[in-house]
Amino acid sequence: MPELPEVHTVTNFIRPFLLNKRIRSVRSLNNYNKVFATHSASQINKLMSNQKIKRVWRRGKFIVLDLDSGHLLFHLRMT
């Protein structure tokens, strides 16, 4: 599991790269679709395409992206 300072560092690092950008498409690396816990890759791609990233922040050990419509959460899943 990642430690809280690592998540904070990653969040601060990625913020300038993502803020005010639009999501063009979503895909899993190596076609490993189990990373999408609640929807298929195609459903997530349809929901996320063209969404603007308005805020990048952290809640506990999750990285949160505030979008035009909703939120996207990431967990680093480090050991």
Provide a descriptive summary of the structure in words.
The protein has a three-stranded antiparallel beta sheet, with helices on one face. The chain has two helices and three strands. 29% of the residues lie in helices and 24% in strands. With 79 residues, it is of the alpha+beta class. The longest helix has 15 residues, at 4-18. The protein has a single domain (4-75), classed as Alpha-Beta Barrel (N-terminal domain of MutM-like DNA repair proteins), CATH 3.20.190. The protein has helices at residues 4-18, 41-48; strands at residues 53-59, 62-67, 70-75. GO terms for molecular function: DNA N-glycosylase activity; DNA-(apurinic or apyrimidinic site) endonuclease activity; zinc ion binding. It comes from marine metagenome. This is Formamidopyrimidine-DNA glycosylase catalytic domain-containing protein.
In short:
The chain has a single domain, classed as N-terminal domain of MutM-like DNA repair proteins, CATH 3.20.190.10.
